[in-house]
Amino acid sequence: MSWAPRPREKMAQTITFLKCMECGAENSRPFIEWDYIFKIVEGEKCPKCGGTRSKIVNIYVPEKKETK
Amino acid sequence: MTPDFTAFLSPAATGGENIISILISLVWLLMFMVFFLYPSFGQRMQLSYMLRDLERKLNKLKMIKDEIRQTTIDTIKKVGKPDSDPAPEVDKLSEFFVIPPESMDPYGIVYKLEHILEIGETSYENEVRKLSPHAEEHQVKTLTNLVEIARGINTLYRIVRHYYLLGKKTSNIYLVLQIQMIMPQLVEIAEAYKMASIAFSQGQPIGDSVGVLVAAKLSDGVEKRRYNIAKDTMVQELEIENRKVYVVRAIGPGGTVGRPGEGVKQLVESLPENPKLIVTVDAGLKLEGEESGKIVEGVGVAIGGPGIDKYKIEELARQRNIPLYAFVIFESIQEAITPMKESIAKAADVVLQKLKKLLVEKVEDGGIAVVAGIGNTVGVG
Predict the structure, then answer these.
(1) Which of B18, B26, B40, B60 has a CA between 20 and 30 Å from the CA of residue B7?
(2) Pick the CATH number of B207-373 from 3.40.640.10, 3.40.50.1470, 3.30.565.10, 3.90.550.10
(3) pLDDT tens-digit map of B218-262
(4) By the CB < 8 Å criterion, does B203 face chain A?
(5) How far apart are the C-alpha atoms of B235 and B344, rounded to whole Å?
(6) CB-based burial of residue B274 (10 Å sphere; 0-12 exposed, 13-18 middle, 19+ buried)?
């Protein structure tokens, strides 16, 4: 008798939070391999001012908010 | 024919007996004889059921072990770009061992243990470095942690398999019962190892990084000077409201815990005057039912591990009469080794504010304080 594998819970996506070094705006995107907190990222445009230098300020897995 | 057959089945027609009732009676008699003449039959049945259950869970552990092994090999190939297949070396490193010092005479055991662990860590890291010639230094540190996870799950699997086979060989129900009772927790730990292997294969910060994260956030943007103090450990000098603060933490973003105990010891011994306090920030294990990210303050040295770093800071603080304060952020053992969750990351910001308030309250103007961020620095620069 073969046991069918249980459907696995999908691993939650880690999010990287960046702060633009020019205008200070914060934005987020999915984690890219070897991102680290306080890394200076070049080449990713700030959605507010278009600046290309950002600093990663946080990396974590967002928690689902329970809806009442 | 049919009337004969129904007559044969019907008790009234055959005087109270029929083949089915005879068969049922015989089965009952057989079962009664078995339980009467073979009293341990019930226990055997239970043992057999427990062994089957244990075998299923053991197979699950094996699957997780193989998955982690494959993740490790694939990451080494991708990041380290070795010249040959790293699989045999990874298998060899999964069996690596460190023998702790003899504790019959405990005098001096802390330094003996430190010496053995240092040799173990250095040689393990060098083996991983040889496997990954094209990896950057911080990636080598993270890959070392990844291979250690493969070693950890391999050890867990081997121990469970040992008890399973021993219980099967000796038909010892009590032995099998003991391992079966803790299997759900062991499988949970194995699942956490699997998620940890994914975190380390990508260089993601884990729950245990929270202590280092607090220390890094404290010095972000206000650092005056930084220098290495011990292996994989650095000091960042800063000033907070006219108080001189020395932050000791592991050097990221590679996965390492550094030597915070040795770092604090060397730092304090080099200072012109004693610091007014030493604060440690670390993740701590929560009890079931407690919230992850809960922050508690206390006294003492919040450092896990074998105890060497904790011993050094305690000894130093006692000799120089320096108060010890600690902040602990609660999380489960799974959360400590898996990608950092939102509640824990947000707790780091709260601890940061409490830490600044403590430094201003307990250290007078012009005074010195030492803050040690404890944890694995993977994903924290």
Answers:
(1) B26
(2) 3.40.50.1470
(3) 999 899 999 999 999 999 999 999 999 999 999 989 999 999 999
(4) yes
(5) 24
(6) middle
Find out whether the peptide bond into B88 is cis, omega within 30 degrees of 0: no
Cα B338 versus chain centre, distance: 10
% of chain B with per-residue pLDDT over 90: 89
Q: Which of B198, B253, B342 sits opposite A36 (nearest CB)?
A: B253
Q: How many C-alpha atoms does B161 have within 13 Å on its Cβ side? A: 11
Q: What is the ipTM of this complex?
A: 0.84
pLDDT band at B18 (very low <50, low <70, confident <90, very high): confident
Q: 3-state DSSP call for residue A61?
A: strand
**By CA distance, what is B60's nearest residue in A?**
A5
- R_g (Cα) of chain B, nearest Å: 30
Query: How high is the pLDDT of residue B71?
Result: 96
State which H helix or E strand residue B280 sits in.
strand B277-285
Q: What is the pTM for the complete model shown?
A: 0.86
Q: Based on C-alpha coordinates, what's the Rg of chain A? A: 17
Which residue(s) pair with A59 in the sheet?
A16
Domain ranges of chain A: 15-60
Nearest Cα of chain B lies from the Cα of A47 at a distance, in angstroms, of 23
Residues of B in contact with A59 (CB under 8 A): 204-205, 340, 345, 379
Enumerate the residues of chain A whose CB falls inside 8 A of the CB of residue B253.
36-37, 39
Is A38 part of the contact surface with chain B (CB cutoff 8 Å)? yes
Q: Which of B142, B204, B341, B350 to mutate to test the interface with A (most CBs of A within 10 A)?
A: B204
Question: Domain A15-60 falls in which CATH fold?
Answer: Rubrerythrin, domain 2 (2.20.28)
